[in-house]
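PT: before anyone asks, these are the final sequences, not the draft ones from last week. 540 residues across everything. Please model them as a single complex and drop the result in this thread when it's through.
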Amino acid sequence: MVFKPRQARIRSGSTLFLVVCVAFMVIAVALIFVCLYMVMNQHRRNESKAEGLALSMATGINRNDWIGDINSMTGYSREMVYSSRQALNTVMKSYPQLRPLANQLLEESRSSAQIVENDKRILMTHIVKTVVIDINSENAAVVKQRGLTLPWVSTSVSKVRSVDVGFLSGVSSNVRAPLAMPDLKDNDINQKWLDEKSLLYNANIKARLPAPDDDLDFTICSLPAEVKETVSPARLASNEEFKPIGTIEPDKRVDLSKWTQLPSAVLVRCIMGMSSSAANKKVEGEVMVSATAASPGATQKLETR
Amino acid sequence: MRLVRSVQSLDSPVMPSRRNEKAILMLSRCLTITASLFVLLLCLTLPASSGAADWIISISTEHLRSAFDYPDARLQPLIRATVKFEQGLERQSEDERKLAEAGYITEEAIPSTLYEDIYYSRSIPVGLRRFNTLAIRPGTPGTVKVLIGDSQFRQEEAHAAANAAVRIFLDAYLKKSALRMIVVTKDDFDLFVDGMQRYGFRRVQLSTQGLISAPIVVSVRSEPVGRAEYLSYGF
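LR: through. Structure below.
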């Protein structure tokens, strides 16, 4: 069989064309994988950044154990009102000459409850300011950074959209049961405010005293208690455990009147812009990443050891 | 002979003095025996039971620097007054000590025990944490010793100590125990007395007879010695 030179040239040209096509396909697939990998990597970095931010903010809201201290002081204020009332009841029965003194000590104790509740509002304001400062400084830092730019897809650097403050479900308070007031302790156990086993007050309650002091507010928030001199550190948690109290957004006013308790956890929401262009069409969207973190637990530094 | 003897006995002065002597001798013997028995009785019985010594309640104040240090906090400066009580026994024999250990007698010395912490902000009490019941023996008198901390908030600490002393006064009174004296450091004496006056305690002067006709009187002394006041309530 004799092959003419032209036919041979056509056959070898086809093979070359096939090889080149295959090579282009392989390179295209590789490029797509590289793009996908870079986008996924960017997403993971954003997640990691959100987690770091959540931990930092959670630590900030309970810096120096402010929330633990004010929670403990709520319990102490309650004990003082109760013991002053008991003293007045005894004085009225047996020592009427001391009634003015016992009355004065009781009124002082009752006013202390309002002082502690007022300071909770001041602390809430400070927490909001701290979180807003953190959000603004983080968003200002990312302005100078560049996102990912690929042939068909581009992303922007993630920014903080909002921070929810709240608490983790299933975490009780750090306020401990009275040690030398058995009647008050029994009352609180019966009212289901105090857990009989752990001897810690439940979280997010208004632990009212028996009448006539039931008009006073003693709000107790969630915060892990110190256990055998070990303080719980700040930690990441799942979003499902998080229960919100309020939302803080940059450039938006926060309505603190809706906050019923002090927070002990944060949920940070960051958004990353994405755009894709192909066949003269541009598609834009946002990818949200979020992370939850709980603040450090309480200490017992107020008490004499 | 009998008549002579009888006449002699009538006339003789010796017989009545002999009778007196015998009587006196008998009486002295009786007295001696009684006294001996009495002494013996005293020696054989146990000594009288020990009396409870005065109780001592100590109040020491301290400024808690690291608490509530966020901006605009109204709970700072936070002062803590730590209250402890103790009560000894004047004397306790070895037998009594053994009886007390066995549970036959209840009186025993009370070691220094933490009673409560009281918290103050700007001279106002804001909280109380009680650790034990006040176990001083009812009906016994006592002394309060005040030690004020050395912080820049001297006035707040003195007022906190005064409020704590007033609360202790009431707690002890309800246990039928009288507060005899309060001892305060000399440098803080005036601030402390001013603090007590906020609760209706008034300075009183002793009359020339040394009597004060007021229902409740507390003596306040300085340590070292040099200042003294009587404060009365209900006067």
